[in-house]
Design brief:
2 domains, 3-stranded mixed β-sheet
């Protein structure tokens, strides 16, 4: 593994840990040249379905985009990184279990909303208000009333 700090190819694994749910392995490494430490993660290489956008474009599934949109909705909310990681893993598992080669982006949006609703009601409303592109305040009020009830 190449050191991200100096580019040296000689790095040593100092510590190895398996995640709580055994979905990935975390390795702490140390560079043989500059002695700096860094972390790597090993995950199984799986083929996620291609995402079909509203305009018909097809893009590869991108975990970082999923995390980014969830983090934006969860900004300044009391939700831990571990909870977000677990939600993302559940979404990915559902996508894989569909067994489809292509999935509409709307379906992913619905999966995200379902997970956000479990994590934090405010984040759910934030995401839904952007995702559903409300036209007027009454649509927004209806959503808030649904969350309250």
């Amino acid at each position: 593994m190449k050191c991200p700090f100096c580019g040296n190819l000689e790095t040593q694994v100092v510590e190895t840990r398996i995640s709580e749910d055994a979905d990935f392995i975390r390795r702490r490494r140390q560079c043989g040249a500059c002695d700096k430490r860094f972390t790597t993660y090993e995950r199984p290489d799986v083929n996620f379905p291609t995402i079909v956008k509203k305009d018909g474009r097809r893009i590869e599934f991108d975990r970082s985009k999923l995390r980014g949109s969830m983090n934006l909705a969860l900004r300044k909310r009391p939700v831990s990184t571990e909870q977000v990681d677990s939600a993302i893993e559940r979404i990915e598992e559902k996508l894989l279990n569909l067994g489809l080669r292509e999935v509409q982006s709307q379906r992913i949006g619905e999966l995200v909303m379902r997970e956000l609703k479990k994590l934090d009601k405010v984040a759910y409303v934030r995401f839904a208000s952007v995702y559903r592109n409300f036209e007027d305040i009454d649509e927004f009020k209806t959503l808030v009333d649904q969350v309250r009830g």
